[in-house]
């Protein structure tokens, strides 16, 4: 590669959700593939060990979008305007020499899922970034079509790079203490309207199965409009948990359930399948694309009776082995190598 390459590592200042996971896993492998790649971030880093592993350059006085839009491009201008890789949807608007990953266009599909401030900002920012970027990376063909149709980007400017499976463990682990000796359904997602958790909880409470609980893992993000979890004896809301705890919950669940109304990719159902856990999920394009017929049953996420029917079906098929799935195409190594090839083409 003839010129310097920088990666926008602002994700090191953020809690790890799906978008940050994509950035973290690919960044670690790119650092091995090309140690000359430089990582830059604001000073409010929270993932200190990873920042040290990546030899991150930390600078500036600002944080968040202000750092990204003001200090980052100024810094890069002093380095000859090198290629900048951005993994988490946003990027410096006025900086031209950039590649950006846009995971989905949920804020355009339904702005009401988000705070008014967030939706307004993203509806302006993301289309402008997409149009000014040298290339766009997205995580599914479903998202690629939306970027083409909603923003008007030429498909030749967009590459699909699938997420990988992060958690791998063949070790049998004791059932989590919070639900010891309890059969449970599991769902993992942030607490926001498009994840449709309230509908799932209403369905679960209406169904009211004996000796079964619904375990909800995930926290709330202030970028989303109001969403909450109904308090009920059969609902166990755990918030954020460690990676190892998450593995525990995946491995011991009767079934993983994913009621999301919209996804760019939908990683949790794939992770559940990787642990041999049955999955029931929303019948939406991205999950169909990623999971195909490996789902035990698809349901209509807008229909309570459809969700209940799938929950009941899953409870009666506890020992059904999920169909074999080709996890080879969902590898972080494969994803990082694909990104590396994109970098070579555009540097």
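Sequence proposed for the structure above (347 residues):
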């Amino acid at each position: 590669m003839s010129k310097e390459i920088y990666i926008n590592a602002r994700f090191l200042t953020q809690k790890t959700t799906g978008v940050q996971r994509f950035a973290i896993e690919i960044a670690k492998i790119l650092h091995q593939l090309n140690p000359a790649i430089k990582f830059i971030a604001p000073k409010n880093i929270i993932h200190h060990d990873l920042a040290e592993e990546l030899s991150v350059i930390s600078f500036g006085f600002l944080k968040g979008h202000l750092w990204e839009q003001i200090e980052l491009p100024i810094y890069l201008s002093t380095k000859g305007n090198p290629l900048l890789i951005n993994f988490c949807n946003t990027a410096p608007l006025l900086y031209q020499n950039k590649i950006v990953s846009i995971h989905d266009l949920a804020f355009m599909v339904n702005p009401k899922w988000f705070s008014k401030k967030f939706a307004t900002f993203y509806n302006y920012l993301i289309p402008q970034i997409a149009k000014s970027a040298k290339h766009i990376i997205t995580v599914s063909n479903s998202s690629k079509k939306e970027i083409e149709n909603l923003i008007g980007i030429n498909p030749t400017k967009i590459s699909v790079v699938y997420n990988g499976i992060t958690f791998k463990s063949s070790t049998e682990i004791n059932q989590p203490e919070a639900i010891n000796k309890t059969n449970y359904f599991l769902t993992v997602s942030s607490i926001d309207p498009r994840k449709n958790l309230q509908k799932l909880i209403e369905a679960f409470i209406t169904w009211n199965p004996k000796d079964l609980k619904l375990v909800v893992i995930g926290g709330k993000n202030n970028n989303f409009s109001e969403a909450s979890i109904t308090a009920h004896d059969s609902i166990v809301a755990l918030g954020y948990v460690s990676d190892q705890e998450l593995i525990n919950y995946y491995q011991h669940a009767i079934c993983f359930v994913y009621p999301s109304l919209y996804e760019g990719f939908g990683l949790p159902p794939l992770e559940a399948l990787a642990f041999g856990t049955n999955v029931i999920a929303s019948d939406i394009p991205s999950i169909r694309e990623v999971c195909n017929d490996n789902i035990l049953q698809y349901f209509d996420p807008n229909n309570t009776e459809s969700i209940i029917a799938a929950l009941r079906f899953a409870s009666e098929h506890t020992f059904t082995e999920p169909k074999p799935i080709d996890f080879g195409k969902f590898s972080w190594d494969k994803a990082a190598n694909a990104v590396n090839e994109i970098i070579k083409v555009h540097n």
